[in-house]
Amino acid sequence: MAYKPTIGLEIHAELKTKSKMFCSCKNDSDEKRPNFNICEICSAQPGTLPVANEEAIKKVIKTGLALNCKIAEDSKFDRKNYFYPDLPKGYQISQYDQPLCLGGFLEIHQDKSQNPNPKKIRITRIHLEEDTGSLVHSEGADYSLVNLNRAGVPLMELVTEPDITSGKEAREFAEELQMILKYLGVSDADMEKGQMRVEVNISISKGEKLGTKVEIKNLNSFKVVEKAVDFEIKRQQVVLEAGDKVVQETRGWHDKKEITFSQREKEEAHDYRYFPEPDLPPMHFDKDYVKEIELSMPELPEEKRERFKKEYGLDNASVEFFVVNKDLSEYYEKVVSEFEEWTIEEESGGSHKKVSRLIANYLISDVQGLMQGKEFIEKEFKITPENFAELIKMIYKNEISSKVAKMVVVDMFNTGTDPSSIVDDNNWRQMSDDSELEKIIKDIISKNQKAVEDYKKGKSASLQFLAGQVMAATRGTAKPESVIEMLKKSL
Q1: How far is Cα 152 from Cα 439, in angstroms, rounded to an integer?
Q2: What is the C-alpha separation between 299 and 73, in angstroms, rounded?
Q3: Which end of the chain, N or C, is less surrounded by CB atoms within 10 Å?
Q4: Residues 192, 325: one domain?
Q5: Alpha-carbon torsion, ordered 299, 304, 306, 311, to 10 deg
Q6: Measured between alpha carbons, how far is residue 460 from residues 450, 451, 472, 478, 485 in Å?
Q7: Whole-angstrom Cα distance, residue 77 to residue 159?
Q8: 420 shares its domain with 288
């Protein structure tokens, strides 16, 4: 019997609020000056009192609603007691037995060739707490420095049920969650900046009885999440096959060696000596309060997937590209909206979905190629939605060739000039004069007699060569199908 992995995730996300969780200090993850955004409260000076940030509470409730959770009518904050150098109070204000959100689930999309149905990963709870500070370790030094800029930042923690069975599933869950947090606007969830951190609880076993649980802390990229889980499954298998026991412990991830390593034995919940936070009152949320938050919910990734398929007729790959690239998807819809008053069926015998797919193709291939991996930011993008729509109309109505269109996109990307001006200034419109095209074809034939002879001997590649020469001579303004047809006739 093979070993069965049982995996649950604990994911922390720093919330996107103006101020910290229990004080008015600025919440700014980009602040480089150490101990700059701190005050008496977040640095734990004697006699100070915390006040809860309502915006952070609303953001957690919004996340819970997006993930099908039950929102608690009554909730409270607790003290989680432990000592660490970057925890100035000696305890963390967190939530224990009355979290804001309970239950819920998130569906992940597995390999559709093997399983067309999404997999439901259950969520145990989502609660709110404050982040700790951070330690700065200087290379070669025998000391560490404490930076409290992050201390007191609103931190949401999501805990899943152990429904995950592989590194790939763990990665997909974390990626989908990150997208939801961004769509909701509750967190930037940038893993490189530490705004989202993933911890894995993993055990393996044969049969019904679960194995010994090991925790892997602070995984800072989706790639690392998948690698760490897959490595740990194999490591535990080796331990058990050797007749040894897996130790319950906390492990870290070594980037260079790509292995997990032991950090400490795992604490149990009672080691934290939780008790209700005496300086903060209990919270009660009536149905109207929660309903108001629910009404402010934006479209979520799964809703967008379904709408883009139905409304624009895009394939799964294109839909997923736009779902992941939210800002570019909003630009795409602005371009599409420019066609609402243009009756494509009457003018070109086509359909709006065909135009929608054409727009998507140019944004996904040509524009992304020009972006060279940079993030799309519309205010920095020189092509207006109106000009991009105008270009697509020119392509759709065969006013310019696809070769010319690619050159126009480059010019528009670099200058922001409208496509009609670029096409007219370069005389790039499709040739409509057959007599002029016929002259060019005769000239190409007379200059390439070897290719003509090869074509007559049955070598079809020679026809493509001659067509290429004609297209070059017309600078891509001739219609390819007309070139082929007239070449065959002349030959």
Answers
A1: 77
A2: 25
A3: N
A4: no
A5: 110
A6: 13, 10, 19, 20, 14
A7: 17
A8: no
Pair (367, 263) in one structural domain: no
Please answer whether residues 13 and 195 qualify as being in contact, where contact means their C-beta atoms are separated by less than 8 angstroms.
yes
Name the least confident of 99-108, 115-124, 328-337.
Answer: 115-124
Give me the residues paired with residue 127 across strands: 157
**Number of residues in the chain:** 491
Q: What is the pLDDT of residues 424-471, one digit of tens each?
A: 998 887 766 666 777 777 777 878 888 777 778 778 777 788 777 877
Q: By residue range, what is the domain housing residue 118?
A: 4-295
pTM of the model as a whole: 0.85
Contacts of 386-390 with C-beta under 8 Å, sequence gap 24+, read 386/338, 387/412, 387/416, 387/418, 387/419, 388/335, 388/359, 388/362, 388/412, 389/335, 389/338, 389/339, 389/359, 390/338, 390/418, 390/419, 390/420
CA–CA separation, 57 and 18 (whole Å): 13
> Do 291 and 308 have their domain in common?
no
Side chain identity at residue 151, one-letter code: A
In DSSP terms, 423 is beta-bridged to none
Identity of the residue numbered 48: T
